[in-house]
Amino acid sequence: MLTYSYAKSRPGGLLVPRAGLTPDRIVAEAGAVADDVGLDRLTLAAVAQRCGVSLPGLYKHVSGMEDVRRGIAIAAVRDLTSVTAAAAAGLSGRAAMHAVSAAYRAYAHRHPGRYAASVMAPAEGDQEHVKAAIEAYNVLTAAFQGYHLDGEELIHAVRMWRSGCHGVVSLEAAGGFGLPQSVDVTFGHMIDALDAAFHDLGTHRKVT
Questions:
Q1: How far are the Cα atoms of 31, 40, 56, 163, 174 from residue 48, in angstroms, in the given order?
Q2: Distance CA 128, CA 110 (A)
Q3: DSSP letters of 168-201?
Q4: What is the mean pLDDT of the chain?
Q5: CA–CA separation, 195 and 42 (whole Å)
Q6: Using one digit for the tens of pLDDT, what is the confidence trace for 150-182?
Q7: Environment class of 90 (CB within 10 Å of its CB; exposed 0-12, middle 13-18, buried 19+)
Q8: Other Cβ atoms within 10 Å of 109 Cβ, number
Q9: What is the DSSP secondary-structure string of 106-161?
Q10: What are the phi and psi torsion angles at 9 (to 5°)?
């Protein structure tokens, strides 16, 4: 996981530029800003202020907003890969799916801006981003191994799981659950439904 240290202000409110500013540290600070204000409201000016440098100074390290958002996306995918792999360790089947899903949802709650960046698909030819996405996919396929799915069926299963989890966390972020019944229970029912569906897919595959 990324860690952050912030520049402190001089008397009068001016930020002290941080020694050793690098693109990775800028991405880390940008991710923190995105968590605070939302990815769609992230600005380079806010990132520069967080880093304690002028906007022109920031451009010495990054080419622009697209570069920063790409960096946040890759870092967030790696973070998600780490937390879901740790959650699934030693588990399989339904237990693994519940653990991975809970870790995924918790990350989205803790880091809403970074999570929003993580859902972006890699640009064509972006090998670093593609590599991070493949590693994330491999963690999920390992967690789903007990369902005996492979090929296109496994891809569809991962998409189903991702769509369900993303739908819940996105609605939560938007305040979309107004009724008093527990969203935790709803989420658990959804994962159980996916578990049953994946078992059915795996059984159908073995029979046919």
A1: 12, 17, 9, 34, 28
A2: 25
A3: HHHHHHTT---SSS-HHHHHHHHHHHHHHHHHHH
A4: 90
A5: 37
A6: 999 999 999 999 999 999 999 999 999 999 999
A7: exposed
A8: 12
A9: HHHHH-HHHHHHHTSPPPTT-HHHHHHHHHHHHHHHHHTGGG---HHHHHHHHHHH
A10: -85, 145
Which is more confidently placed, 10 or 175? 175
Q: Which residues contact 185 (CB under 8 A, 6 or more apart)?
A: none
Residue 81 to residues 41, 44, 88, Cα–Cα distance (Å): 25, 27, 11
Q: Cβ(114)–Cβ(168) under 8 Å?
A: no
Q: What digits encode the pLDDT tens for the residues 62-78?
A: 999 999 999 999 999 99
Q: Are 157 and 201 in contact (CB under 8 A)?
A: yes
Residue 50: burial class (beta carbons within 10 Å; 0-12, 13-18, 19+): buried
Which alpha helices (H) appear in 4-110, and where do they start and end? 23-37, 44-51, 55-58, 65-88, 93-110
Nearest-Å Rg of the Cα atoms of the chain is: 20
Q: How far apart are the first and last CA of the chain?
A: 43
Q: What are the structural domains, with CATH classification, of the chain?
A: 65-207 (1.10.357.10)
